[in-house]
Amino acid sequence: MFRVVLAEDSVLLRAGLVELLTSGGHEVVAAVGDAEALVSAVDEHRPDVVVTDVRMPPGHHDEGLRAVMVLRRRYADLPVLVLSQYVATVYATQLLSGGGAGTGGLGYLLKDRVGEVSEFLDALARVAAGHTVIDPEVVRVLLVQQAQAETLGRLTSREQEVLALMAQGLNNQAIAQRLTITESSVVKHASNIFMKLDLDPTDGNRRVLAVLAHLRGSGPE
Amino acid sequence: MPERRIDDGGRPETPAQERTSVEDRAQVPERTAVEDWMPAEGHERRGVAVWDVLRDRPLHYLLSPWPLRCLAYVLSGAVLGYAVLLALTVLVLVGVTLSVFGVGLLILVATAALGVPVAIVERRRIRLVEPESMADPHSLLSGVGFKGWFRARLEERATWRELGYAVTLGVLGTASGAGVALLLGFSVFLAAAPLLVWAAAPDTVTLLPGDPVGSPAEALPASAAGLVGLVLAGYAAGWLAGAQAKVARLLLSPRDEGLSTRVIELTRSRARLIDAFEAERRRIERDLHDGAQQQLVALSMTLGLAEMQVREENARARELLARARGEARLALEQLRRLVRDIHPQVLTDHGLAAAVTEVALRNPIPVTVDIDLPHRLPAPVETTAYFTVTEALANAGKHSGASHITITGRVRDDRLHLAVTDDGRGGADPDSGAGLRGLADRVAILRGRLTVVSPLGGPTELRVEVPCSG
């Protein structure tokens, strides 16, 4: 059971998300409609996890993301799950590099995912536990592109599967479960991947960031 | 090799007259059927019609309808000029007298626009002696109201030239017309002298002082003088009509300065249209984001919750709910694609390089993006450049058979240089795509240039060059 602060400017979705989170056994301590209110609600309630929209009043740009940056500078260990109407790799990078300074979990998901109630609640739990969750859509776009560009040609198909799950933010244990292989073989695959792609074998956010950065074909911004 | 440039200055398939047609067709002067008394068609005639006839065929002139037309023109000009002179005098006198009250100033302002109706009459009246009526130099006004009309007209130089013409017509037109009328009247009188003498008999008629004429025969020299006078009046009317027509053409025709003002107006209104178009896209995007998209997310969430509530044994219901959720997800995906095509949020938030990178990642043909810009560009430049890239990518995907696309972007000399190159088979026709032509128009509005080079066998290169400072 987590204490959640929710920020979402659509009244309809806010009510829906409150219902969904409550049905998942969580307590929504505050549900607000803009980024400023989000920051002050977090200051007031010190929740276990924040769920926020990206595009909110007043400017309807990336106010939600900016608020997350502010919050993560203030509370480095605060887990945040960002929901967006559409995903773009640039936002994922912005979130991970800007919010990745902290140690708390980070999530970046398409809003559509809330329809998969149990998977959504599972993702929320992983973020609250300090893991990184990146929307499969972002990872898929990157992988398809890189596969065509033959950058990933050096990886075996199993290694590519592991890479895709790593990019989504799964830890070794979760990857082992997904692929029904042992955790030690995941570790072996991972180190092969890092060696072949010339990446730093780090862990957590930085690992996801490194993988994403590599897939985007540019360094972290 | 189909190498064509699409830009504002040199679109090969757009002849000049097509562009002028954008302006007002009603203002193109009407041309009468050429009558035989007019100078021959094809004869390069840039002067005054009646003067040309006087110079080229002075004897033929007398026997043609010309003298009558010229007399009609000059005499009607005198009548009109006199009326204008009267109106001007009265209006100015009343205006000055009442100027201590506000209304006098208003009358004076109204007087300034007196040339406008005079000019309307004059542009038609000139058809008596010229083959073409004149075009209206004024801009089109509609729905501006009485005050708006005055304000707009007084700002136009044409209005003041017309006032000048009205004064000229009032003074010189009236005077010369009166002179011709006198000459004409006296000549007719002299020419008819024998008739008068005959009619007045047995009284005598005195044509010259101290020399009474007794019989019609003795009046014949006067008659001859009268005929000479008539000929003179015909030529004088011709010369004066030509002079008046020339002055009218000089003062009442549209001038280049009016034309360039109109071009600026057109350019501005075109830019306003694009802005409005862009604002509309943003509005639609926002409406979709705030409306349909949220509704569909809420729907899929409700379906998800319902799915959890339905007990395990009701497998059929769960299946249906899952299907409904899948359909909602598809609808959301389509909507998302649509919204991205209308106006990409990444472009607004992160600029051209990020937005192009994003669209490149989703492109079915691999794309290498090399865009390095020192700063964010003005929104219209970013939007135009972005849609040029998406259009180029779409075209490459459809026609070229390319396996790789390169996009480069740099700012040099405060101009954005953007190039999209594919390794396809080339031979792309820049005119075939309505999308590309629309883009060329947008680029042209930003005073930029769009070129497509696509030799058979490839490669196809689309280049955009746009000034960065609005």
UniProtKB/TrEMBL annotation, chain A:
This is Response regulator transcription factor. It comes from Streptomyces bangladeshensis. The modification 4-aspartylphosphate is found at D53. Residues 148-217 form the HTH luxR-type domain. Keywords: DNA-binding, Phosphoprotein, Transcription, Transcription regulation. CDD domains: LuxR_C_like (cd06170), REC_NarL-like (cd17535). It holds the Pfam family Response_reg. InterPro entries: CheY-like_superfamily, NreC/VraR/RcsB-like_REC, Sig_transdc_resp-reg_C-effctor, Sig_transdc_resp-reg_receiver, Tscrpt_reg_LuxR_C, WalR-like.
